[in-house]
Write a structure and sequence with these properties.
It contains 3 helices and 15 strands. By secondary structure, the chain is α+β, with helices and mostly antiparallel strands. It folds into 2 domains: about 60 residues, no CATH class; about 150 residues, no CATH class.
Length: about 240
């Protein structure tokens, strides 16, 4: 358990900084972990849970490029985003607004800055909230990634044209991302996931077992060439 960025891992007793999960209640969202907690522990409210060793070492996602709060002077891929906060995208607090108003206001804010939002990504709970709020006015749209993979979304009208609303199980429960999709790209050295065969060998014999091993790797990151045309909406 740690803060989202920076700082050291929290501890339960001044020493133990990792917590094996022994139980998950998917109805309530409660996690049960092992280990006793005492007065030396440093866990605080609003901390985040990471897979041990993952923080800061994985792909920078949408919230890295378009954070919920204005970026500080800490360099992000070598850029001080505090000199113009649009370098860290746009933000809108929509917690006190009906969800459809939050989307319209967010799209208008992006349009003011020269952006053209074409997709909103949200959790399934927020998608259901939007669907119920629109009632008989809801407009559905079917999207195809390829002939085998498709999605059903909701269409809403924005200041620069219709916007597709897509539910995503990996989207944070209290965040909606409004994106101009052509400003995003997954960059990679070689194929996104590939066999590591720089020596010309795809398989290696194991020295201590009757078997072979194959190694896969990925060298890349998510990139955005116009963060200021995208928005993080708190809901």
């Amino acid at each position: 358990m740690l803060t989202k960025a920076g700082g050291s891992a929290r501890t339960s007793n001044g020493t133990l900084a990792s917590f094996p999960i022994v139980g998950i209640n998917r109805s309530t969202g409660a996690l049960t972990v092992t280990g006793a907690y005492d007065a030396s522990g440093t866990i605080a409210a609003n901390d985040y849970i990471f897979v041990n060793g993952d923080r800061g070492l994985k792909i920078s996602g949408m919230e890295g490029w378009v954070p919920a709060s204005a970026p500080s002077s800490t360099a992000f891929f070598g850029v001080d985003r505090s000199v113009d906060t649009r370098l860290g995208g746009l933000r809108l607090t929509g917690t006190s607004l009906p969800i459809e108003e939050a989307l319209i206001n967010g799209a208008s804010l992006c349009a003011r800055e020269g952006g053209k939002i074409d997709h909103f990504f949200m959790s399934y709970a927020k998608y259901a909230e939007l669907e119920k709020a629109l009632g008989s006015k809801v407009q559905y749209i079917d999207l195809k990634v390829n002939p085998e993979v498709g999605f059903r979304g909701i269409m809403v009208n924005g200041p620069r044209g219709p916007i597709k609303c897509i539910p995503d199980q990996n989207c944070p429960a209290t965040t909606i991302f409004g994106v101009q999709l052509d400003s995003w790209k997954l960059y990679s050295l070689g194929k996104a996931v590939r066999v590591i065969d720089s020596d010309g060998l795809q398989m290696l014999r194991q020295s201590s077992a009757d078997g072979v091993e194959v190694r896969y790797g990925f060298y890349g990151n998510l990139g955005c060439n116009a963060p200021g045309r995208n928005i993080n909406i708190s809901v």
